[in-house]
Amino acid sequence: MALCCYSRTILAVLLVCLIIFGSLLVQWSSIMNTFQRPKLAKSDVPVNITSTTILVWYWAFGFLQSLHGNVCKDRYGIPNCILSDDRSLFPQADFVIFHNRGLINGQQSLPLHLPRPHKQRWVWFSMESPAHNGNLKPFAGQFNYTMSYRRDADFFAPYGWLEPHNVGTGTTVDDFIPTEKSSLACWVVSNFQSNHRRTLIYNKLKKVIPVDVYGGAVHRRLPKKDLLSTISHCYFYLAFENSIFKDYISEKLWNNAFGGAAVPVVVGPPRKNYEAMIPKDSFIHVDDFSSIEELGEFLKKLAGDRERYATYFTWRLNYTVVTYSNWMVEPYCQICTKLTTLQTPKVYWDLQAWEWK
Ligand SMILES: *[C@@H]1O[C@H](CO)[C@@H](O)[C@H](O)[C@H]1NC(C)=O
Ligand SMILES: *[C@@H]1O[C@H](CO)[C@@H](O)[C@H](O)[C@H]1NC(C)=O
Ligand SMILES: *[C@@H]1O[C@H](CO)[C@@H](O)[C@H](O)[C@H]1NC(C)=O
């Protein structure tokens, strides 16, 4: 008897708890909704918008860029954003950008001798993988933000991305497949090193299928103007990265394979990593096969099966490939569009650790 009443009480208490919890959940989710998408009413838009000044301390690889006019607004429609390489603006610059290569090869250095304005933030920029960024230990505690192809960088600057688009009615997958495919697999390689994983794979693959190789390393240079038309004649393009790192998916995929309308065969981070950026049926991953021989046989078969080959182009009905028109200017201007999403204050106390994590 006592036991029965006891369990009834527990039941009642549980029920009350459930009701309270449920109503809290409803309230909480409506609060979250209002916070997640703050929509500014017209009258809330500040009349006084101050410009953000972005200073390029020196140009990547010394490639000078012309910054004539209101660059960010004129070229990319980004207002209130002053991009300059005039070092005399240092005292008023909101952001200063340093491209890593200049720092690690000793041609450039951080302006540590100048008084750094309190509000000024320094941006470390590199599009290379950690294998090619040198020792970053000397820069501990100097940078506030990173700009890189990595998705977890403060300023994500990928080698390319996809944007949804609507093709006109009447467009079919076949419209995206170049009609003249005469080579099975092609590869353009500038830095041919026998110890690269990609070289080992190539050496095995060429025993199974013919691979057309281009580049300085094999004394078969392709002029830039011929690059994409050459690749468009290939069923497959070997988009083999020079080193394997998280998110490191370079212009080999975006510009060469996708740009040349050849199906990419990739060596790089795991398939899942690619799938975060591109559709799963847009590429062939070397790791999908238990051996390179198996990969070669698959490619041979696929090239002979028009219908199946075309499935690797289906995604093009819905997405278009985009790359920066100028990777040394456009991502810099984009800083001005991301001001409200930045973590602040922020300091990279151990840039080297972030780089290799
Ligand atoms: C804009 O800012 C300036 C200086 O802070 C101020 O004097 C001026 O009244 C502001 N104008 C408007 C329209 O808010
Ligand atoms: C992709 O595009 C095609 C043709 O425009 C359309 O029929 C289809 O619904 C789209 N698929 C998706 C997932 O949007
Ligand atoms: C930027 O980094 C510097 C150097 O570590 C630091 O003193 C400053 O507080 C940081 N600024 C912000 C806004 O995080």
Automatic annotation (TrEMBL):
Bilayer disposition of the protein: Single-pass type II membrane protein; Single-pass membrane protein
Fucosyltransferase N-terminal domain span: 51-160
Name by which UniProt lists this protein: Fucosyltransferase
GO cellular component: Golgi cisterna membrane
UniProt cross-references to InterPro entries, sorted A to Z: Glyco_tran_10_C, Glyco_tran_10_N, Glyco_trans_10, GT10-like_C_sf
E.C. number(s) listed in UniProt: 2.4.1.-
Principal cellular location given in the protein's record: Golgi
Stored Pfam families: Glyco_tran_10_N (PF17039), Glyco_transf_10 (PF00852)
GO-annotated molecular function: glycosyltransferase activity
Parts of the chain that traverse the membrane: 6-26, 47-64
Catalytic activity, as annotated: an N-acetyl-alpha-neuraminyl-(2->3)-beta-D-galactosyl-(1->4)-N-acetyl-beta-D-glucosaminyl derivative + GDP-beta-L-fucose = an alpha-Neu5Ac-(2->3)-beta-D-Gal-(1->4)-[alpha-L-Fuc-(1->3)]-beta-D-GlcNAc derivative + GDP + H(+)
Similarity comment text for this entry: Belongs to the glycosyltransferase 10 family.
Record's subcellular location: Golgi apparatus, Golgi stack membrane; Membrane
Domain Fucosyltransferase C-terminal residues, every copy: 180-354
The entry's keywords: Glycoprotein, Glycosyltransferase, Golgi apparatus, Membrane, Signal-anchor, Transferase, Transmembrane, Transmembrane helix
Pathway: Protein modification; protein glycosylation
Gene3D superfamilies: Glycosyl transferase family 10, C-terminal domain
Annotated organism of origin: Coilia grayii
